[in-house]
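User: I'm new to structure prediction. If I give you an amino acid sequence, what do you actually give back? Let's try with this one:
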Amino acid sequence: MKIRKKGVLILPKRLREAVGLEEGDDVVVEVVGDGLVLRALKPKVVDVDLKFVEELLREEDRFEEQRLRRMLQSEENSA
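Assistant: Good question. You get back a string of structure tokens that encode the predicted 3D arrangement of the chain. For your 79 residues, that looks like this:
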């Protein structure tokens, strides 16, 4: 393989297929020692408990509301 103009490197089809890379896929390149490691950037699918997320957001809303009340009371007391 050869580095071309502007640093372009063409990966042979057999290498792309070996790791499941297709045109438009994202990759991560890391410097390891005096070499480079190229990895396919594949998103991880995670299960999310939507009820838990909703409760966290409600809790955050309550916290922000309390914080704003304290700020307003502080401003009223100093006026």
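You can read the tokens as a compact description of the fold. Here is one thing that stands out. The chain has two helices and two strands.
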